[in-house]
Amino acid sequence: MSTTQATDIKEVVKEKYGEAALRVKSGGSSCCGAAGASGCADPITSNLYDASQIGQLPQEAVLASLGCGNPTALAELKPGENVLDLGSGGGIDVLLSARRVSPTGKAYGLDMTDEMLALANENKRKSGIENVEFLKGEIENIPLPDNSVDVIISNCVINLSGDKDQVLREAFRVLKPGGRFAVSDVVTHGDVPAEVRTNMLLWVGCIAGALQDTEYVEKLRRAGFEQVEIEPTRVYNVEDARTFLSGHGIDVDAIAPRVEGKFMSAFVRATKPKTCCAPDCCA
């Protein structure tokens, strides 16, 4: 992908997620890709958190969730750990993580969208959780030092990047030796029609930019990770495909049967080695 294409994708993502944040503040909710309205039944974003988790947080944090999984259930967080959420949105996963690493740990949320950061900080205030910090920045250039966090989580955001190799290199850089990469993301299994891959709005909708499962594993290993594992959590059928393909200028009747079972939400796990060759790796 060219630099221009990656920039175009970033701008579309920023615009749509900014709109999603504003919609939540006005009383609505969001689907993956910021195209939904109140009562959204998006097959990707629905029913990700249990009632006990939802009950802990401000309603706006729940309504602003645009994810495809629950990385806080995946990461096995421990008190005292530092956690970074890539693309933290309204802050739901950051706030849940902060509770689990308290009192001595800290949860960072990184987002590039001013509207989402404003919403996240408001949700932090309402929750009363103090061991949280929201940072403005891009996941391709994380504003934290080398070897500074124990765990990286993310919820259906890495697939939105036009430069996933750089995202994974940055994740590797900021993780401490032995640190854990534990994200929820949309991945594919098998070939996906070009009409889907090239549709800009479907990038924002967490679909077009999804990596093939084998490619995700390869990119993580190339970045330096080990113990790489992808665990499917939801596999989308033809009716799900009709839902997330509709309204984007695609011949849904023709395309949906060709993507049945090829898109899935998955837990993606990997570990940074405890020792490595980089001069500052074990700092």
Give structural notes.
- With 283 residues, this protein is an alpha/beta fold.
- Helices cover 38% and strands 20% of the residues.
- The protein has 12 helices and 8 strands.
- The protein has helices at 3-25, 51-54, 59-63, 71-74, 92-101, 114-127, 164-174, 194-197, 200-204, 213-223, 238-245, 252-259, and strands at 82-86, 106-111, 132-136, 149-154, 175-188, 211-212, 226-235, 263-271.
- Strands 1, 2, 3, 4, 5, 6, 7 and 8 form an 8-stranded mixed β-sheet that branches.
- Strand 4 (149-154), helix 7 and strand 5 form a beta-alpha-beta unit.
- Residues 29-41 have low confidence and may be disordered.
Helix fraction bin: 25-40%
**Rough outline:** globular
What series of H and E elements makes up the topology?
Answer: HHHHEHEHEEHEHHEHEHHE
Radius of gyration: 18 Å
Quickly count the helices: 12
Key attributes of the depicted protein:
283 residues; alpha/beta; eight-stranded mixed β-sheet; 38% helix
